[in-house]
Amino acid sequence: MTFQEFIDKYLGQKKGYPDGSYVGQCLSICKLYIKECFGINPPPSGTNSAYGYWSNFPSPLDTVFKKVLNYKDTIPQEGWIAIWKPWSSNQWGHIAIVAKGCTTGTLKNWAQNWTSKKFQLESNRYTNVIGFLKPIEENNMTKDETNALNIIKGYRAILDEGNLEGTAAKAVGDSKDLETKKKDLSNCKSELKTSKENHLKFILSLAKELKVDLDKQFVAMTAKEKEDKILELLVAEIDEKNDYIRRYKVSQSKNADKLNSYEVFKLFIQKLFPPWKK
Asked: What is the pTM of this model?
């Protein structure tokens, strides 16, 4: 989810995290932001307070953010997370999502539990703001490459393991999260048609990332031949996904549907980079 999509979706609502818990609290909306916009499970603060996200900086926050101290000339950017240390009348501190329009004297932010339990735009001074969590940049990756990388990250645990049932069960986890991954995989088909060059670069780097050896004949192809072949295999694999699922269900138990994502993705990699090597 993009930053603006998140704001539009939750503006004016009272949200809790996990759903139904700590409704209207400042940390709840920030945890939801981290979950939906950065794709990681937001950890407990370790202090039962918003300030714990700064003082403890619990893992895996360090995989998507870096800490930036609040100096007099610091102007935070939209999408950063601002954190207040505790003060005399507030032992928990405060946390909010930075909005556009900040200056050295004014901190614009989206928050819950400041002037309202509802998620809304606030304007504060920097009193008691200890610092910010700044999103780590994606090394200038294109949007298409970033989307594809997020899909691969979701299946990396499976590819690194040999136990089909164990790794598939681990990967399934939250069914909603699994459905999102499956939809993202299907969306590659339409994305490929409009961004062949970016996907070519990504798929070739993926081969190196997963330590999969490319077939000598494939390596010998021209850049244009590689591009056409990759497109052909990827689109065909996605088109045939339902057939793989059907055949797999016939041969497996009632729980086979939980393993479909693994099977489809493995077949996808096998066909794209023959022969398959662990």
From this structure: 0.53
